[in-house]
Each structure stands twice: as C-alpha cells, then as structure tokens.
Specification:
With 172 residues, the protein is α/β, with parallel strands linked by helices.
Length: 172
C-alpha cells in the first residue's frame, strides 16, 4: 500500500465481506471476487486513473481473478500468494487454482517470503514459470508468509518493479 502510494497512486484498502467490521459473510472466494470488482469500479469512478491491483494472501488469490479480467487494470501484484491448500478457521480447506492466469498478459509481480508456509518456493516458481510474460517473481530471503521483519524489502521490490516494468505501461 505504501509503495504504490509513494508513486502518487490513490490506494483503497478494504476488508472482504465478513472480515473485521465489514458486513456480510465469507463466500469462499466467489463473492469476494465481486468485492474486488466493486472496489475497482469505485477507484475508476472516483479517480479515472490507470489501475494497479495489489493483494495479499487470500486477497491476492481472489483479487488476481478479478484484476486479470478487467481491462482497466494495467498490472497486478500478488503478495504471499497461497499455492497449497490452507485450512481456514472453522472451515474446510481452501484450495487455490490459478488457471485463469494462463491468459493474463498484463505485467505480473509475485512477491513471497522464501519461507512462506502457504507458498512453498518450488510450487510458486513452477506456477510463475508457466505464466505468460511479462512476469516477475521476487523471493524475500528469510521472509515468512507475513513478511515479518522484511516489509522494507517488500516495499523496495514493489517500488523497483513499478519503476522498471510498469511506468511505461501506465503512460500508454
């Protein structure tokens, strides 16, 4: 959030339905894709600027689905993208599938902790390797799923990628 805001992008940070003080109930990723679409609509209406989507963990998994299909979104960032089944509190396991990324030709940045328990290095590398260009995977050495103690490195990775890979995309 801070990295994108440092470039002058307006940033919208929100909770999905049923999280925190938000209304509604968790919808196992279906309704949450709609939450992202609604957020993108609001940002477009409010600011009329090119959009970059960035999401963390579950937010990346469902947000990438909405962002890749949206022509207003010029680039995507997935932080701590989960690639193995995750047992959620009092729920069945969440299984993450990313076939939709096979047709996503937008610039894509994936940032993960090298010790991310939900995004094992080999599985994440295989996922990103199979995707169309442009794409980049940055592994933060020593970082876990929440990037504890490594947020500066995450911010620097995003800032560097935006400067090198996305700036020209946003001007077109």
């Amino acid at each position: 959030m801070k990295a994108l805001n440092s470039f002058g992008f307006p940033v919208l940070r929100f909770n999905f339905r049923g999280t925190g003080l938000s209304q509604g109930e968790h919808d196992h990723g279906v309704g949450e894709v709609e939450d992202v679409r609604t957020a993108l609509d609001w940002l477009d209406t409010e600011f009329h600027l090119p959009l970059i989507f960035a999401g963390f963990s579950f937010g990346a998994a469902v947000g990438l689905r909405a962002a890749c299909a949206d022509s207003r979104v010029r680039a995507t960032i997935g932080l701590g993208v989960p690639v193995v089944p995750v047992a959620a509190d009092n729920e069945e396991q969440r299984v993450y599938a990313y076939e939709f990324l096979q047709t996503c030709t937008k610039p894509k940045l994936f940032v993960s902790g090298a010790r991310d328990q939900f995004g094992p290095r080999a599985k994440l590398e295989a996922l990103v390797a199979a995707l169309p260009e442009p794409k980049k995977l940055i592994l933060i050495e020593g970082g876990d799923h929440f990037f504890e103690g490594r947020l500066r490195e995450v911010r620097e990775a995003i800032e560097s990628w935006v400067k090198e890979a996305v700036s020209s995309q946003l001007k077109s």
